[in-house]
Specification:
This protein is an alpha+beta fold. The chain has 3 domains: 88 residues, 3-Layer(aba) Sandwich (Rossmann fold); 139 residues, 2-Layer Sandwich (D-amino Acid Aminotransferase, Chain A, domain 1), CATH 3.30.470.20; 62 residues, 2-Layer Sandwich (Dna Ligase, domain 1). Helix content is 35%, strand content 20%. The longest helix has 17 residues. The relative contact order is 0.16. The C terminus is likely disordered. GO terms for molecular function: ATP binding; D-alanine-D-alanine ligase activity; metal ion binding.
Length: 327
């Protein structure tokens, strides 16, 4: 199952990349994670001789684009509203003709909207938990009754487990909604899948080994993701046909959402039925010490520095990642 083969690196001379702007930080709710990711990316690029500079946030990016300060951008800006995963910075870079890593405008904007991503998946016959989109006027108790408890309530446009509540009893619904409405956009209520939490990294046109996440506590929340040191990551997360199937499903989900280059697809596996359910796509995944894409790449024989280099290579003309954007 781990016999993934990767093409040889296209460049060996770091000077061929020119100057690389590493877009990080920003003003989204995921700023701190992005700063950490960005520091790691810059360190990895510089260790291989790439001329990489930090660019903190969208206003700084806009100024640098006007002043033609770099030749390409490694986007590691997380989230939206000042983050780099909602299509806005992609549109800005397209307008200036500067190549950048990751998904294009459509793939980024769609993936940031969990509701519309799920609608696209359903149109492709891909499995995702039953859900109801909520707005301020919605009757959350009626929605929970329709789906059946337990449910998950979350903002439709946030990442990193921001604003998410798992509601097992009806008494917890109002508090869950009060937390989620702190973030703008629609809310999403979905049936909670009880089972294994898995994630599959995508690099180019391949799904890397899955990771099964086993938090010490009951849930894989923000603390378990970024702070706790006792979360277990089992890679590969599954065996045999199950591992083949989750990778196939993740790649299909990534492509259906119009994504390209690299990313991560989060999946739940129902404990009672063994069925997989797609949750969301991350188009600029974390690259911190706790992050999952580097763990998965390492299992496939790709170290952190090589991973960063391969992602940056996707900004070169004629790269397959740029041609898969609407496959």
């Amino acid at each position: 199952m781990n016999a993934l083969t990767f093409p040889p690196l296209r460049l060996t001379d770091p000077a061929m990349f020119g100057r690389v702007g590493v877009l990080l930080g920003g003003t989204s709710s995921e700023r701190n994670v992005s700063l950490d990711s960005g520091r790691n990316v810059i360190e990895a690029l510089r260790s291989r001789g790439v001329d990489a500079i930090a660019v903190d946030g969208i206003p700084a990016l806009a100024l640098a684009l006007v002043e033609k300060r770099f030749d390409r951008v490694f986007n590691i800006l997380h989230g939206h509203n000042g983050g780099g995963e909602d299509g806005i910075v992609q549109g800005l870079m397209e307008a200036f003709g500067v190549p950048y890593t990751g998904s294009d405008v459509l793939g980024s904007a769609l993936s940031m909207d969990k509701i519309r991503t799920k609608q696209v998946w359903l149109s492709h016959g891909l499995p995702t938990p039953r859900f109801i989109a909520l707005d301020q006027a919605s009757d959350v108790h009626a929605a929970a009754a329709e789906l059946g408890l337990p449910v998950v309530v979350k903002p439709a446009n946030e990442g990193s487990s921001v604003g998410i509540s798992r509601v097992v009893e009806e008494a917890g619904l109002d508090e869950a909604v009060a937390l989620a409405v702190r973030y703008d956009g629609q809310l999403l209520m979905e049936q909670m899948v009880v089972g294994d939490e898995l994630t599959v990294a995508i690099l180019g046109d391949q799904a890397l080994p899955s990771i099964r996440i086993v938090p010490k506590g009951q849930w894989y929340d923000y603390n378990a993701k970024y702070i706790a040191e006792d979360t277990q990551y089992l890679c590969p997360g599954l065996e045999g046909e199950d591992e083949i199937e989750i990778r196939r499903l993740a790649l299909a989900a990534f492509r259906a959402a119009g994504c390209r280059g690299w990313g991560r697809v989060d999946v739940m596996r129902d404990r009672s039925s063994g069925r997989f359910y797609l949750l969301e796509v991350n188009t600029a995944p974390g690259m911190t010490s706790h992050s999952l894409v580097p763990k998965s790449a390492s299992q496939a024989g790709i170290g952190f520095e090589e991973l960063v280099w391969r992602v940056l290579e996707q900004t070169l003309p004629g790269h397959a990642a740029q041609e898969h954007s609407h496959a």
